[in-house]
Every structure is written in C-alpha cells, then in structure tokens.
Amino acid sequence: MHNAADAQASLEAVLKDEIIRMYEEVADDPTAEFHFFHGRQAAELFGYDPDLLDRAPVGAVNSFAGVGNPHQRADLKPGETVLDLGSGAGLDSIIASWGVGSSGNVIGVDLNPNMCLKAQAHAASTGTTMECHEGRMEDVPLPEASVDVVISNGVINLSFRKRRVVEEMFRVLKPGGRISITDIVSGKQLTQSIVNDPKLWAS
Amino acid sequence: MFSLLEEAGFKRVKSAVVPHFSFRQQSTQDSAEAYGVKAVMMTASKPDGN
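The joint structure predicted for all components is written out below.
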C-alpha cells in the first residue's frame, strides 16, 4: 500500500515536470506543431468571439491550449469573483476579467509560476488585472467559499486525483456558486502503459 | 467526471460534447476515438446553504 502511494507520488512529480515543459513550449514557441490544435485557430474553432481575441494580447491568444470554450455557459456578471483553474498564459482569465468588470476579481491558479507571471503581464497589458497563484488544483490555495465561479479549460484531465480536484472546486465555491469547465474525458479505462507515460498523460 | 461532480455535492450537473474538438494528427485522433476520448463542457452549481 505504501509502495503504491510512493509510486503515485513519484509519477505525479514526473508528470508535473512534463506538464510544465509541454505548456511552456506552447507558450514560448506557438508556431511549433503539437498534436492538439492551439492558438487562435483553436480558439476560433471553439467559438471564442473574434472581437475578444482581437482585444486580447497576441501572446495570450497564441499560447491558448484549451479544449473548448468555458465562457459560453459561464454567464459571468459584474462584480463576481472567478477562479481560473490552470490559467496558463491567461487568455481565459483576461476574457473573464472583462466579463466581471472592474468591480469583479479573477484569480488564476497554475502549476507553473512562470506562467502566472506571463498571465499577469498579459492581463496588465490590456489594462486589467488578475491575481495568479502558483498551486496545484488538488490543493487550491484559496479559502473555502471564496469564489462565485470556477472556470477551467482542459487541465483537470491532467490530474491523477480528479476526485480531489472536484472536491476542491466545491470547497472554494460560495453557496450558490457554479462551475463552467471544458475538459477531456475518456469513455474507457486507459491502459496502464498510457497512465504510466507522463508524455502521453500530459497530452 | 459527471459522477464525480454529483458525488461531491454539485447539483444541476449538465454536460455537452464540445463540437469541433479533434487532435491534429490522424493517428492520435484514431487512438482517441478507440478510447472514447472527447472534449466536454460541463456546468454545475453548489447548492445554497452548503
């Protein structure tokens, strides 16, 4: 039992490094080819408003690596506090900040502190602000009942502990709060060879 | 994922397949389809009083 826990912890550590490496690569070299669509091409495919993409910093748009559009059903209102779980280079946070306005608040959480800095710089370049905390989605560094809405785009599938992630979203939401997330799901149990391969899992 | 949300206490859990999602490489797309991999949008609410 102890060995299984140790093995999972070890695999998670390797996975964390792989996730950081892969998504930094997307952010640093948006012209590179990955096996998923990214950048403006992907955002437009998922129905992001082209006008919003025009307003957003090019760096944030080019680094977009989501799998859908959580804004379509987020129904953000002025003054709300939004948590963007896995905020990456910041495109979804920036769009959310426009939705909640200056009386609202957007908080990003990302595994990679460099991505947090990048997201905050992108937000600042548009004249808006966002907090961003380095942290894991399995242990969200926010108090309970502190946000109105959780958005997330293609990151929960990266976790080995999805139940814990869902419990954390529930914990930080205020009563009556809501989630609007897009993610990858699998209809079948993945083979152990996929689970044990950080490169495949991080994809 | 749907059941995880319900088990955590979320209500009004809804999901829909994200249209147009696919992998860039056909071989990856073929493998994904074999495993029933798809992108979904999910919404849910935390009940008042929780």
